[in-house]
Write a structure and sequence with these properties.
Elements: H1 2-25, H2 34-57, H3 61-75, H4 78-90, H5 94-120
Length: 122
C-alpha cells in the first residue's frame, strides 16, 4: 500500500508542475501547444536523468516510484498531446499537427538520451 502513496504524491506534484508550466506559456499567442510541449520535454529529460541514476546507483524502489512513475507520469501528458494534435487536425492545421507529432517524438527521445548522457558524465 505504501507504494501507491509514493506514486500518488509524486503524480500530484508532477501534475501541479505541469499545470504551472501550462499557465506560464498560456500568454504566448501561438497555435502551437507550447506548454504541453515544454512539460513533455522536461519530463523526458528528467526521466532520462533518473534512469541514468537508477542504472548507475540503483535508486531505491520508493524513490523510483515517487519520481519516475509518479512525478514524471503526472508531469508529462500524452492525453493532452493527443487531444491538442486532434484539435489541430480538426482546425485543418495539418502541417502544424504533423510538425507537433514529429517534433514531440524526436525531442522526447532526444531529451531522454540527453538525460542519460548528462547523468553518466556527472
Amino acid at each position: 500500500m505504501q507504494d501507491w502513496i509514493y506514486v500518488f504524491i509524486g503524480g500530484g506534484i508532477g501534475s501541479l508542475c505541469r499545470y504551472w508550466i501550462g499557465l506560464q506559456f498560456s500568454n504566448f499567442n501561438t497555435d502551437f501547444p507550447l506548454g504541453t510541449f515544454v512539460a513533455n520535454f522536461l519530463a523526458c529529460l528528467i526521466l532520462g536523468l533518473l534512469i541514468g541514476m537508477q542504472l548507475k546507483n540503483n535508486i531505491a524502489n520508493s524513490t523510483s516510484l515517487f519520481l519516475m512513475t509518479g512525478f514524471c507520469g503526472g508531469f508529462s501528458t500524452f492525453s493532452t498531446f493527443s487531444a491538442e494534435t486532434l484539435q489541430l487536425f480538426q482546425d485543418q492545421q495539418y502541417a502544424l499537427g504533423l510538425c507537433y507529432i514529429g517534433i514531440s517524438l524526436i525531442i522526447g527521445l532526444l531529451a531522454v538520451y540527453i538525460g542519460l548522457k548528462l547523468h553518466s558524465s556527472i
